[in-house]
Amino acid sequence: MSKLTDTQTLILSRASQQDDRIALPLPDRLRGGAANKVIVPLIQKGFLDEVEADIRKNEPTWRKTGEGHGTTLVITDAGLEAIGVEMETPQPDPAQAKPKPRTGTKQALLIEMLEAPDGASIAEIAKATKWLPHTIRGAISGALKKRLGLTITSEKVAERGRVYRIAS
């Protein structure tokens, strides 16, 4: 079991009790640099995950991204384990099976581009699909991440900008 401060334990415990597992809001006394000193190690250890906040659900934000979006903090299974919360192993419900993407659609093309070893940038996807950048970001975060449950990674590449990939 990893050594946690009282504040880190409090944050993880509060998040474990939420249905959505969101670790926000932080305790009132935790602001600015102090918040970073507590939260960043939890992210680095894999106890918290930074995910895109759902503005429609008024999810609290941890930080703002450069594109007008925000991220929130969610406790991971490792975080639950770190505070001694036992995970229930859910039995798969056939009625709630993840939908499968249709073939021959722009979404299928998007998935194919993101599965390529080199991934794809927003500009490359826009050229192939004729979608606007905000539509592409919405498809990645909505249809691919939330609906299909795919894990999307991104990294800055010198000549191409931010490149997105589906993690294997």
Task: Provide a brief overview of the structure.
With 168 residues, the protein is of the alpha+beta class.
Provide the fold topology.
Elements: H1 6-16, H2 32-44, E1 48-52, E2 63-64, E3 70-75, H3 77-82, H4 106-115, E4 120-121, H5 122-129, H6 133-147, E5 152-157, E6 161-166
Antiparallel strand pairs: 1-3, 2-3, 4-6, 5-6
Question: What features would you describe in this structure?
Answer:
- The protein is an alpha+beta fold and 168 residues long.
- The protein has 2 domains: 6-82, Arc Repressor Mutant, subunit A (Orthogonal Bundle), CATH 1.10.10; 100-166, Orthogonal Bundle (Arc Repressor Mutant, subunit A).
- The mean pLDDT is 86.
- It contains 6 helices and 6 strands; from the N terminus they run ααβββααβααββ.
Query: In this structure, how is the largest beta sheet organized?
Result: 3 strands, antiparallel
* Beta strand count: 6
Class inferred from helices and paired strands: alpha+beta
Distance between the termini: 28 Å
Low-confidence stretches: none
As a percent range, the share of strand residues is 15-25%
Order of helices and strands: HHEEEHHEHHEE
CATH class of the largest domain: Mainly Alpha
Any guess at the CATH architecture of the largest domain?
Answer: Orthogonal Bundle
Tell the overall outline. globular
Helix content: 25-40%
In order across it, which strands form the biggest sheet? 1-3-2
Quaternary structure: single chain
CATH topology of the largest domain: Arc Repressor Mutant, subunit A
Task: Give the count of structural domains.
Answer: 2
* Overall residue-averaged pLDDT value: 86
Radius of gyration (CA) equals 18 Å
* Number of helical stretches of at least 4 residues: 6
